[in-house]
Design brief:
Largest sheet: 6 strands, antiparallel
InterPro entries: AraC_XylS_family_regulators, Homeodomain-like_sf, HTH_AraC, HTH_AraC-typ_CS
Structural class: alpha+beta
Order of helices and strands: HEEEEEEEEEHEEHHHEHHHHHHH
CATH class of the largest domain: Mainly Beta
Distance between the termini: 23 Å
Number of helices: 12
Protein name: Helix-turn-helix domain-containing protein
Radius of gyration: 20 Å
CATH architecture of the largest domain: Sandwich
Helix content: 40-55%
Organism: Rugamonas aquatica
Domain HTH araC/xylS-type: 198-296
Strand order of the largest sheet: 1-2-9-4-7-11
Shape: globular
Strand content: 15-25%
Keywords: DNA-binding, Transcription, Transcription regulation
Mean pLDDT: 85
Length: 299
């Protein structure tokens, strides 16, 4: 979860865990200077299964739709929006947090992974620091022009394509900060983030089978239980127990994709009472039972 994006294999693993099982059309990065990455993926087939898209904890993700996508957005296992996202629309997803969607059409999507440190460095050069954000899909011809230049960097810059993309990436981020930002909120004291948040998530991930108590997690941060729960919810959008369940489900999905293990073993390894508990919870979260999920993925 907290692995730095320092090679293309990390990117491929993120897409696999996000339900992308076709070869990536383009996978560039990390770029030499900005350390940003550019990935384009396409699919000719719909995927009605509910997929969980988890933002990388150290990176902004900018999603750009190159063609219309018929999609459904889910929240806590319930559909909250449905329709067609038009072509040449983009949105900015901040570090951490997650979303769920199902795709009822083909797609052609670009994802840019941008280190939060790069945004911070650009912000430091501004007179007034800004908070980057565009949660709704938005149309902007300047954004599309810069993205298409990066996708065509090989033809435009030849062996210097990485350096060319670095320049385009900084130009894009400078534009987004100017036009898709709001004044940064005043820093809050005692927020859960950085090393403490990574320590908590690592501890949770290492104890999926047995579970962890709020008391133990709060102790890792030197907080009271109530304070820890509030700060955790603020940082990740879910209370600790629900985020732990999310981690268990994602681990179960990863093990199902790997194949070779009985359902009961997967349930035990991920902290479910038994295979039936895993099946009910998995179906509610992903829209299909685990056995059917494994069958569809050829495992």
């Amino acid at each position: 979860m907290g692995t730095a994006i320092d090679n293309t294999e990390v990117l491929k693993d993120w897409f696999l865990r996000s339900g992308v099982h076709t070869p990536l059309h383009t996978c560039i990065g990390p770029l030499p200077s900005s350390k940003a990455s550019i990935v384009r993926w396409t699919s000719n087939q719909p995927d009605s299964m509910i997929q969980t898209i988890s933002s990388h904890p150290n990176d902004y993700r900018i999603a750009i739709m190159l063609e219309p996508v018929d999609a459904r957005i889910w929240l806590h296992g319930q559909p909250v929006w449905g329709g067609v996202i038009a072509a040449e629309r983009f949105r900015i997803c901040p570090p951490s947090g997650s979303s769920q969607w199902s795709r009822l059409s083909s797609c052609d999507i670009v994802n840019l992974f941008v280190p939060a440190t790069l945004i911070d460095n650009l912000n430091a050069q501004r007179e007034t620091p800004l908070s980057l954000g565009a949660q709704q899909f938005t149309s902007d011809r300047h954004v599309m022009e810069l993205v298409r230049r990066m996708l065509n960097a090989d033809a435009l810059a030849g062996p210097l394509q990485s350096q060319y993309c670095d320049g385009m990436m900084v130009a894009l981020l400078s534009y987004l900060l100017e036009h898709y930002s709001r004044p940064a909120a005043a820093p809050q004291s005692s927020t859960l983030g950085g090393g403490r948040l990574r320590r908590v998530l690592t501890h949770m991930g290492s104890n999926l089978a047995t579970g962890v108590s709020n008391r133990d997690l709060a102790a890792l941060c030197g907080m009271s239980e109530a304070h820890f729960s509030r700060e955790f919810h603020l940082a990740l959008g879910l209370p600790p127990h629900r985020y732990l369940m999310k981690m268990r489900l994602e681990q179960a999905r990863t093990m199902l994709l790997a194949g070779g293990r009985p359902m009961g073993d997967i349930a035990e390894a991920c902290g479910f009472h038994d295979a039936s508990h895993l099946s009910r919870t998995f179906s509610r979260h992903f829209g299909t039972p685990p056995a059917r999920f494994r069958q569809l993925r050829g495992n």
